[in-house]
Each structure stands twice: as structure tokens, then as C-alpha cells.
Amino acid sequence: MAPAVSAAGCVRPLKQLLATRRATMPAAVKVMEKKKLTPEDLAALTIEIKAMKLLSSHESFVKLYESYDEADYYYLVLELISGGELFDRVVEKEKYTEREARSVIRQMTEAMAFAHSKGVAHRDLKPENVLLKNREDDTSIKIADMGFAKIVTKENPLMTTPCGTPGYVAPEILSGKPYGLQADIWSLGVIFYILLSGCVPSSSPVPPRLGVLAAAFQPD
Known about the structure:
Elements: E1 10-18, E2 23-33, H1 39-55, E3 64-69, E4 73-79, H2 86-93, H3 98-117, E5 120-121, E6 130-132, E7 141-143, E8 150-151, H4 171-174, H5 183-197
Antiparallel strand pairs: 1-2, 2-4, 3-4, 5-8, 6-7
């Protein structure tokens, strides 16, 4: 399999022949160049793949079709979602109506309840990581980007890695305390507030794209 792109972590829509499915279908392929990945990156990728497999049966998560381990690259073949990011739609609309927000809130809440029932924490919920199914529909969504995901157990339910995006991260993460699956709920609350008001909870306008929390990712 020849690489689709050379940059690590790039996602590009293309027609991908899925050999195991014997059909040509539109897909997005996430391509990661092995030589650019650290041991921590590889550990996170392993968790990302496991998490996506656990969640692919739910309609509100982007599906992982296949993963490939080739000589120089890793490939994740993903469901292609063409509607763009929720972030951009909120900026375009300025804010959602209560009816629209309620629809998005219901889908995300049900999706995260499913994820948490499987022991999966997303840990980077934000409008940039929520995709719209198409450009004509403002409310049908898919949750994407499981790069910071963590799978916990009943015996070990707490996490310690400070990761996520400022503005959406729960207080316990910012304070360096151990945290559980509930941290995702804080992020959901921030997103819901933004949908209804067009502002972040500090009452400022929706900010430009925020960077990921400035801390090296160390899998828990």
C-alpha cells in the first residue's frame, strides 16, 4: 500500500478499496509516518484504535473501518463525514436555537453515555471534534478524534494525564487531581452552553481555535 500523504497525522478523504469488504467506498484515511512517532504516540495510537473499535457500533461516533500497519506508515480507514466541524457551524450561525441545541445535546449525551458504559473516556470533547453529517443539516453529528482517549476499568477508574483543550477541560484536570469519566461531562456542558449562547461560559465570544493543553501526552 503506497502512502496517501507523507505528513504524520494527516486525514484526507479519498476512494479507498477495502479489501475485506470487497467494495469501493468513500472514506477518510488518517496516515501516520512511523519514524515521526514517539513511544508515547504509539501507546496512544493503540488506545485510540481500541476505543474506536469499541464505539464504532454507535451511530454518533465516527466509525473505524480498518487499520493497517505497513512498513513505514500506519493507516486508519475511517467513515467519511462531509458536513464540517460543529465549531465552524456555530461561528456561521452565531448560536443555535433551543430546538437545534436540544437535538445536538441529546445525541452527544447518549453517545457519551454509551462510551462511558464501555469504559471509554474521550478527554478532548470540543466543537472542533464534533462533525456534522452533511452541510445541509445543522444537528446530525458524529463525535471524532479519539487521540486522547483512555479506557478505564471498575478496578482502576481514575486517570492522571493532564490532557484536553483549555476552555473545555474540567477543573480537576487543570488542578492536577486524578479524575474519572465525569470529566467528559464538564466538556459537554461547555459545548452545550456555547451552542445556546454563542459564547464560552466566561461570556466572551466563541474563541478562535484553542490549542491542546500544553503538556506532553503520557498514557495513564
